[in-house]
Design brief:
With 43 residues, the protein is an all-alpha fold. The protein is built from two helices and no strands.
Length: 43
């Protein structure tokens, strides 16, 4: 019987192309910077 993590990993192997992984990395950097800047402006 497969657990949720196993199912997720199985699906991820199908969809995680190198291009999508790169897009996710770039997106996470931009989103993180946005929230850091937003936090600074609020304080």
């Amino acid at each position: 019987m497969m657990g949720n993590t196993d199912k997720f990993e199985m699906i991820a192997k199908i969809y995680d192309t190198s291009e999508r992984v790169q897009i996710a990395k770039v997106s996470s950097v931009v989103i993180r910077e946005y929230f850091v800047n937003t936090k600074i402006q609020i304080m």
